[in-house]
Amino acid sequence: MAGEIQNPIIRVRDITVQFGTTRVLDGLNLDVKRGEILGFVGPSGAGKSVLTRTIIGLVPKVAGRIEVFGVDLDASNTSQRRNVERRWGVLFQQGALFSSLTVRQNIQFPMREYLRVSQRLMDEITIAKLTMVGLKPEVAERFPSELSGGMIKRVALARALSLDPDLVFLDEPTSGLDPIGAGDFDELVRTLQRTLGLTVFMVTHDLDSLYTACDRIAVLGNGKIIAAGSIADMQASQHPWLRQYFHGKRARAVMG
Amino acid sequence: MSGDPKLERIAKGNALALCATGTWTASFAPVLERMVADAEKLAGGSQSIFIDVSEVAKLDTFGAWLIERLRRSLTQGAVEAQIAGLSANYSSLVDEVRRVRATPVIDTGAITITGMLEQIGRAVAGVAGTVAGLIDMLGAVLAACGRVLIHPRSLRLTSTVHHLEQVCWRAVPIVVLITFLIGCIIAQQGIFHFRRFGADLFVVDMLGVLVLREIGVLLVAIMVAGRSGSAYTAELGSMKMREEIDALRTMGFDPIEVLVLPRMLALVLALPILAFLGAMAALYGGGLVAWLYGGVEPEAFLLRLRDAISIDHFIVGIVKAPVMAAVIGIVACVEGLAVQGSAESLGQHTTSSVVKGIFFVIVMDGVFAIFFASIGM
After folding, report:
1. What is the pTM of this model?
2. Phi, then psi, of A46 in degrees rounded to 5
3. Looking at the partner chain, which of A99, A124, A191 has a beta carbon nearest the beta carbon of B104?
4. Quick check: ipTM above 0.90?
5. Over chain A (256 residues), what is each successive 10-residue block's mean pLDDT?
6. Distance from CA of A120 to the nearest CA of B (A)
7. Residue numbers in A near B340 (CB within 8 A)
């Protein structure tokens, strides 16, 4: 257990991902520490979502090693892998809620699969999760097509959290939300991280999220991590893209 | 560090004290729920109630909620149950859970007889709506046709040709293969049964009339309804789901003109062509079987065929094709545009597109049969 605390929760070593002849990730290294919120930024099309999807196992890699919770995902057998998958939750960019299931069924779907829990407890936990992500219990019986964009993100987060994971991947959680909604969402992620002891891997473009929610920031460029550290480190960096990103017009507006 | 969860009663005078230990997480939920249910019976008669959680090794939302559930059911009247010994790590989680409203919304999804009857009633009443929707679409398509006739340049030629390739050119192999096989089967069955009466040669009459008047066009129309009607519904439906049709509308385009008309035109052109090819393939197949299995020489077959059928038979068959194509196209487009937000709805509408398409094709065939019989063709 002590070892597990020191070891990073995600350890990515020399990852290379290629689509045809285009090399998207080129020998990338990244560690995510237990209990932190890591903000992951980079220019559009740099491969942020690709890295997330590679770690989750949706995109095949050409070379490299990925360890999550100390388990090498390539060397693991089915039951080890399921065990890892049970301990992580994923929030997709578009929510990826099951459109033919209600909100309640969406949230209970992983519970039915992995846990042996009574219907009453599942219903109560569903309400608890909805309350945690700031939604009213009445939403439970609605279908995803009847929800607003912000509500879809919240429900998707509730589903990602339904098994009380140790690690959540958030792919652009605040994109498409109004600034107030986005701010609430950042606050929510922080609160949940504190209450549930989560580790959060967050791909984002939102400067506000970086400032308010993230403990550490990693920057992707040319298929590699070009910088990783606190927000102060980022601002001090001399890398041209980082200078533009953190000292541009919008950054100044955020910093006030 | 982790151990099986336990909930023990510690006697403390007229106070009720419960001590929770071990791992209170989702993996132990069934055990935890049973323990909590047992402990709930202990309520009553105590001056004060404590739930001691200082020995809990691990807590998640499931465990926290069960402790909260226990606290709520032990709280009766003036005596409020207290949670004691909460570690700093978990206090925010327990606070969060405390905000949860107790009464979960439970839907009554039970199937009742009245509910089933109501569904049947609604479905019957929905038939009128379906017919109205089809007539509505027919009108919209005709209006779009009118506009295109006035301004021929507004016809989407590229799109029409693209769909023509999809529904006609790419359909040729499967249509020809299936009609060829059906021709073979009709001829084989005809010869097998007619031989007993020594009427082998009449199989040519049967094959010619049946294929040209009915089977050729009907079979091809059913295949097209299954192959292209479903594709149209799925395409339009997924465009509807992703608001692409709304986007077209806001740009000032008429979805009927841009999406529906090219598809309809392609189908109306494609079905006669496919029906013709299908009829030829069926005759060829029938002729082949008549020769190889029935011993009818090709020359004899052709001579007999020339006597047996007239151009009327061919016209009766081919006239039906564009009408059936229009019916299939309209049904498919109406269903496609009726798709709601979910994947399930897309599936339902694609299914009903094919089912209704085939149904209407057969109804139309019946109507045509009566019509041609009354005008003596």
Report:
1. 0.71
2. -80, -20
3. A124
4. no
5. 61 86 84 86 82 85 84 83 84 84 88 82 86 84 85 87 86 79 80 81 82 84 82 80 76 62
6. 9
7. 145
